[in-house]
Amino acid sequence: TLVMKHNLLNYVALALLVMTKVGYGQNLSNQVYQSPLIIQDEIEYFLEQQRYDSPYPITFELKNINCTLKLKNCTGNLHTQFAGLKKNIAKPLIKVSCAKPRWSITLAVRVYLYKDVLTLKQATPKNTLLQITGVQISKQDVSLLTKGYFENYQQIKQFQLKRALAANTILTPNHFFSNIVEIVDKSPSLST
Questions:
Q1: CA 53/CA 58 separation, integer angstroms
Q2: pTM value?
Q3: Where are the beta strands (DSSP E) in 90-154?
Q4: Residue 127 — left, alpha, or beta (φ > 0 → left; ψ -120 to 50 → alpha)?
Q5: Is residue 179 scored above 60 in pLDDT?
């Protein structure tokens, strides 16, 4: 499941609101304004439905929606989609809209996508030929690695570093001289 950093007070407020409305036999659709927490839940559900190429669950952060935002309560279902032409996997824009009454809001989300990738065990000087003893596989966020990364040692065997690198650096094609024949995964993918 997804992990979302919600403000504890918002959860408590929503729980009290639901208990109050249900306790008095009222329906949440009688609210005048759309709850920001319902919009956040809609975005969370939308992201859960996406297929990410990762063996680990994704995590994401959504900045708290301005609680003073006064969007009229939606009488139908909320519609959620990626905004813009290109789906940026690390920092997508998500548009949530309502048909009646007509409104929409676009919010930025930070998605963290983890994979097992090659990293350096220790600081390594420039022009070093990498050996299997100098690298390790570790779980890392790859959502911002648009130039690619490596998932197994055979992909970089005997390649020479262009520059000195610090320990735990995620190895990417940019770190090597251009003798790389097969570049691994390019930027992380999201299929809909």
A1: 10
A2: 0.69
A3: 93-98, 103-112, 114-120, 135-141
A4: left
A5: no
